[in-house]
Amino acid sequence: MGDPAGIGGELTLRAWQALHRHGPCFFAIDDPQRLAALSTQVPIVEIASPEAAHTAFADALPVLPVSLAAMAYPGRPDKANATTVIASIERAAALCLSGAVGGMVTNPINKAALYDAGFAYPGHTEFLAALTNASGRQIMMLVSPDLRVVPVTVHASLRNSIAMLTTEAIIAAAQTTAAALQRDFRIARPRLAIAGLNPHAGEQGALGDEETMLIGPAIDALRAEGIDASGPWPPDTMFTAIARSRYDAAICMYHDQALIPLKTLDMDHGVNVTLGLPIVRTSPDHGTAYDIAGKNIANPASLIAAIELAATLATCRHA
Asked: Does pTM top 0.90 for this prediction?
C-alpha cells in the first residue's frame, strides 16, 4: 500500500496498465475505494485470496482489501491511517511466510507519520526483519541494470557511520550479499568489490587508516572463507563502466557512497532489495513524493522494475 497520501496508489495503477497483458501477475493490498478514486481508466476487482489474482489480473487490478480510517488526500499524510498502512505490511509478510505468494513489493511510506502513531521501527526493513524473525541479519541492496550496491552502514549521519564501521560489520554485509547473489540471483561465484572509506582508499595510510585497520582485515577474512572479495577499491574510480565489469556487487561503507552512483546511473530503474530475510522483498528506490501526489505524473518505472525483480528473485529462490 505505502502511504495513502503519496504516489504509491498512482504507481500501482500504472504498473498494472504496463504489466497486465504479460505479467508478472501481482495484486495490491489496499483500500479499493481509494484506488478507484485515483483513476477511472483502471478496472479494479476485490479478491478474497491471492489465488484469485491469477484469474482477474488480465482484465482488472486485483485488490485484497483493507480499509482506511480516514479519507486520503494527496500530499497530506494523516496518522489516522497509519494502522492500515502497518496492517498492509503485516498481511503481505504473512502471505510470503505462508508461501501463498512469491514475494512482496512495498510502496514508499512516510516514517514520520507512522512514528506519530507509535510505529517503533526505523523503516520497512527493520519492521520486516522483526516480522520474519530475521532481526540483525537484514541488509539493503540497491539494484539497477548496471550496478548492485550494498551499504554497510545505512541511515546514520556521516560522522556516526564512520564511528559505526567495524571489520565485523563489513564481513557480515559481504557474507549476506554473497549468499543472496548465489541463491536469488543465480551467480555461482559472486565477485564482491569492497570500497575504501577515504580518498584514494587511504593512500596507504596517508589519508586515513580505516583501510588498513578495518577494511583490509575484513577482505582477508572473506577470502579465507572462499568469498571472492577484492579491494579496498578507491571510491572515486570503482563505478566506471570498466570497473563495474569486474564485480557483481559493490560493498560500500556508508549510505551515499552506495546510492549516489546507482541513482546517477539509473534513477528510474533502481530497486531496493532487502537481503537476509526468509522472504523476497523489493521496493522502488524513491519516496512518497508528496509534491506531485495526485497529479498522475509520477514515473512508475521503479515500481515496475521492483515487481519484475521480485518475480525473478522468487523464481530463482523457489526453483
From this structure: yes
